[in-house]
Each structure stands twice: as C-alpha cells, then as structure tokens.
Design brief:
This protein is of the alpha/beta class. The chain has 2 domains: 103 residues, Urease, subunit C, domain 1 (Roll); 284 residues, Metal-dependent hydrolases (TIM Barrel, Alpha-Beta Barrel), CATH 3.20.20.140. It is 36% helix and 22% strand.
C-alpha cells in the first residue's frame, strides 16, 4: 500500500489527556486509510519513510484531527423558516409544537419527499459540513415515524456514508415525536417504535438508538421501553435529555450505559453524578441554545469538575438548529458556554469520537484513521476565535484528500 508523507506541518495531535499535543515541526506518515507514524520530523526513521510514494509539503500549516459532528438530524424534507418568523412574533417552540407544527411539520415533508430528493438535499448539507472539516457525521432518523419512512431516512444516511467520502453513523430516533395517526395513543406508538427496531437493525441501518425525553416528547418510562428494545439487540443508546426541563432522563440513560446524553441545559447534580459513574459523554449543542434563545446554561463547570467528557455538535435540524457550520459551534461553545478553545476543539474530535463509540479516530496517533484537517492558521485556538471565516485548506478522510 502506498505511503504518503505529510511534512512541514504544525501538529495539534490532541493526543494525551490535556493540552494541544503540539508538535512544532511535525510530520505524519499515512498508509492507505491509516496513520502509520506521527511526530517530530527529525525523528522519522529512514526505514519507515522508505517506499513513500508521495510527499506533501504543508507549508507550516496547522493540522488537527478531522472534525466529528456527533449529533445531527441532517436528513429531512422541507424547512421551517416560517416557524422562525412565528417565534419572532412571540410564539414559543413548545406552543408551535403543541399546535401541530414543529417536528410534525418536518415529518409530513419528509414522508412526502422521495428518497433521491432527500439524498440530494442531505448531501448538500453534508458537503457544507465537510467544507469546514467534518470527516465523521452522525445522522438521526426521527422525521419519518413509520417503519417505512424511518427506513427511508436511514438508507439516505447510509448512502451518504458510501457516496460522499466521509463516515456516517446512523441513529434510530423513532421516539422523536408522536405521529398524527397515533394521536392520543402514546404508549401504542412507543410499542411500535420498539417493534420496528429489529427489522431496521436487520437491514443494517442502525448503529445506535436515541429518544427525545422531554415534556413535549416522551416520558422516562416510555424511553426505558425503547432502551430495553435496544439492549435486547445489543445496540448502544444515547438520549436527548434535559433540554427544556429536567425529566431525569440522564439517570435513566446512564443505567443503560449510554454513549452520550445531549443538550443538558437542565441537568441536575444527580444527573452529573450518574454520567461520571457510567462514563457517558455530555454532548453540548450551542446552536440550539442560541437559536431558541435559551437562557439556562448547561452546567459546564460542574461537568468539568466531575470529569465528564464534554463533546460538541451542530444538532443540525430544521426546527431548533439550522446551522451548517461546525466552526461556528467551536466559537459559540466558548462565547456562550465558556469552554476554552482547547476544550471546544477536543469536543468536536476526541470527545465526539467517544460519544459515537469510535475508538479509531479523534486524535492524531499511529494506528488511528487518517482523518485530519489542514488549516490556514498560526495556532489551533484560532479555530474557535474567528467566526464567519473558514480557514480550511484541505480535509483528508481515510487518507483521501479533498484536493485530489
Ligand atoms: N433536537 C431535536 O430533536 C429537537 N430539538 C433538538 O435539539 C427538535 C428538532 C425539531 O424541531 O425538528
Ligand atoms: Fe437533536
């Protein structure tokens, strides 16, 4: 297999518990989709470099691990700019949802859209994320809410993974909202969500299972049934938890060893303790916080103190976070949530990999996937500093450069 040398690079490997993992005069050797060696250029042994087919002089640019967006709802029909206008006139997100808008309006548009259109629209969004350095993307279902429409969404997500040159992890979010045909039959719907899961898994469409545990979503008791169905099939779980209120969903998710709990603005002290004990990642979503003009901050300081890993994601969705800029999320995590630039970059690399249960990426180290970004900056802290500027020079996913 062909070896490629990337040299004259300033590396932020993020390897190690803390710090940037900075290597001022760095080099990296890749072989196919893997990193073979990373270190000081002067330490590269001639034997290892032997047989190198190509050399890329990166001109002193900064290299970081490829970005990982570990929470998105990228596949859906239509858009909801009209609800944005309604909110500007004073309606709340909950009011719009209870009046049959919100998630359910995206469900209607998603059911209507044919698979090729859904793919085309979702691929365009994925490309926007990739243009800012995303190499790995999680995509949730949850706008189909029938077996066939959920399968359609998940197939679109899988196809993005095979056609676009990035890794896509799929998450089944059947328990996102109550579809109209189940009006006043919440428990029957939850049963259906559980019943559909084996078929979806058998089609290879599900990597993890999520639920929207919220006053306007599903109760912890209903969420438990979904998690039990996941557990029976050996699937990992994650949860939309404590976004608009404290339902105690986090403690439940941690009982099931959840990979992550996401949002967490209303997370309690008990919830934090449960996360620390189960090693569950806290995924913070500043885009939704900003777009809903929330004022209750997630308990960042307490999460940090408890040693809970903190990840960041776009939560791209048509209702509460129509953002397609992972770099803006780095900035907002600092300005709104007071993360440090280093924590924010770790949140979209090292910790985001943990939130997806992926051990083969998120840092620059020998043996990991060759997923990395080359940036036109002096120091990686600038990635969180600028907003509205995209300094990406090239993105390499599985050893393949966006420039080739
Ligand atoms: N993620 C979700 O699933 C809900 N909020 C969030 O941050 C709502 C998505 C939507 O309104 O379509
Ligand atoms: Fe979400």
């Amino acid at each position: 297999m062909s070896r490629v040398l990337w040299h004259n690079a300033r590396l932020a490997t993020l390897d190690g518990e803390q710090g940037w993992g900075w290597i001022e005069q760095g080099a990296m050797l890749t072989e196919g989709a893997q990193i073979l060696w990373v270190g000081e250029a002067s330490q590269l042994s001639p034997e290892l470099a032997e047989g190198t087919l190509r050399r890329h002089d990166l001109g002193g640019a900064v290299v970081t691990p490829g970005l990982i967006d570990c929470h998105t709802h990228l596949v859906y029909g239509g858009q909801r700019a009209h609800e944005f206008e309604l909110r500007l006139q004073g309606a709340s997100y909950e009011e719009i949802a209870r009046a049959g808008g919100g998630i359910r309006s995206s469900v209607a548009a998603t059911r209507e859209a044919d698979e090729s259109l859904l793919f085309k629209q979702a691929a365009r969004r994925a490309k926007a994320l990739m243009d800012e350095g995303v190499c790995t993307l999680e995509v949730k279902s949850g706008y189909g809410l029938s077996l066939e429409a959920e399968a359609k969404m998940l197939r679109v997500a899988r196809r993005m993974g095979s056609d676009l040159g990035l890794t896509v992890c799929t998450t089944y979010l059947g328990a996102h909202a109550l579809p109209p045909e189940y009006a006043d039959r919440q428990d029957d719907y939850v049963q259906a969500v559980c019943d559909w899961l084996p078929a979806l898994q058998a089609q290879g469409l599900v990597d993890a299972v999520d639920a929207f545990c919220e006053g306007i979503g599903f109760t912890p008791a209903q969420t438990r049934l979904v998690f039990e169905a996941a557990k029976r099939l050996g699937l990992p779980v994650k949860l939309h938890a404590e976004q608009l209120s404290d339902q105690g969903g986090t403690q439940l998710a941690c009982e099931f060893g959840a990979l992550s709990c996401d949002h967490l603005e209303y997370l309690s002290t008990e919830g934090i303790g449960a996360m620390a004990r189960s090693g569950t990642v806290a995924v913070l979503l500043p885009g939704a916080y900003y777009f809903l003009r929330e004022t209750k901050l997630p308990p960042v300081h307490a999460l940090r103190e408890a040693g809970v890993p903190i990840a960041l994601a776009t939560d791209h969705n048509p209702g509460t976070s129509p953002v397609l800029s992972p770099l803006l999320m780095l900035n907002m995590a600092c300005t709104l949530f007071r993360l440090t630039p280093e924590e924010s970059l770790r949140g979209m690399t090292v910790q985001a990999a943990l939130a997806l249960g992926l051990a083969d990426r998120g840092r620059l180290a020998a043996g990991l996937r060759a997923d990395f970004c080359v940036w036109d900056v002096e120091h990686p802290r600038e990635l969180a500093y600028y907003f509205g500027r995209n300094p990406l020079l090239q993105r390499v996913c599985g050893g393949k450069s966006s420039r080739d």
